[in-house]
């Protein structure tokens, strides 16, 4: 159940522009959405013990792989990365932004995303696009406290 809670997009204002981010920009160390578990292991090494997570309805089991400061969620059969969640400054997007970056650095590197607020956190969310501007139901979301990124995620609902 914990995984599905993280997949929920925060309540974002529709009045602000939403930048679109190329899928390749969302890669960390050359690994991104859709990548297979074998490639993840090649890039990041052996993960902590694997867990199986289910949606609140008990359907759609997902495989979860954890490393220090990053967590990957794979599709039902573990064939492709659906989402990842980053809490460590050692993992950066291609542009160099990540945990510890400021809102201004994100806007400069990636453009202005939709903004929202939940509790003490602000969120910036950008849509992710594939090759040839192909729509992908994926989002790059930064959680900011005092205009500094504390965590970020790339999630898809495919």
- Please write the string of helix (H) and strand (E) elements: HEHEEEEHEEEE
Shape: globular
- Main pleated-sheet profile: 9 strands, mixed
Number of domains: 1
How many strand elements?
9
CATH level-two architecture? Sandwich
Percentage beta strand: 35-45%
- CATH fold title: protein yfey like fold
The residue ranges in which pLDDT falls below 50 over 5 or more consecutive positions are 1-17
SS field, number of helical segments: 3
Terminal residue distance: 17 Å
Radius of gyration, in Å, reads 15 Å
- Structural classification: mainly beta
Give the class-level CATH name: Mainly Beta
User: Which percent range fits the helix content?
Assistant: 10-25%
Name the average pLDDT: 81
Give a verbal description of the structure.
The structure is a single chain. With 158 residues, the protein is mainly beta. The protein has one domain (2-156): protein yfey like fold (Sandwich). It contains 3 helices and 9 strands, in the order H-E-H-E-E-E-E-H-E-E-E-E. The protein has helices at residues 2-7, 37-44, 103-110, and strands at residues 20-22, 51-53, 62-67, 70-74, 81-86, 114-118, 121-129, 135-145, 148-156. Strands 1, 2, 3, 4, 5, 6, 7, 8 and 9 form a 9-stranded mixed β-sheet that branches. It is globular and about 40 Å long. The two termini are 17 Å apart.
């Amino acid at each position: 159940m914990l995984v599905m809670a993280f997949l929920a997009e925060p309540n974002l204002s529709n009045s602000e522009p939403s930048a679109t981010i190329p899928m390749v920009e969302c890669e960390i160390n050359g690994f991104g959405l859709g990548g297979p578990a074998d490639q993840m292991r090649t890039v990041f090494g052996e993960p902590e013990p694997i867990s199986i997570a289910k949606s609140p309805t008990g359907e759609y089991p997902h495989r979860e792989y954890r490393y220090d400061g990053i967590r990957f969620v794979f599709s039902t059969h573990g064939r492709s990365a659906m989402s990842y969640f980053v809490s460590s400054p050692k993992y950066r997007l291609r542009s160099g932004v990540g945990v510890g970056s400021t809102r201004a650095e994100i806007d400069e590197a990636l453009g202005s995303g939709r903004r929202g607020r939940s509790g003490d956190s602000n969120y910036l969310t950008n849509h992710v696009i594939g090759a040839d501007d192909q729509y992908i139901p994926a989002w790059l979301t930064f959680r900011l406290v005092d205009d500094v990124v504390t965590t970020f995620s790339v999630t898809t609902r495919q």
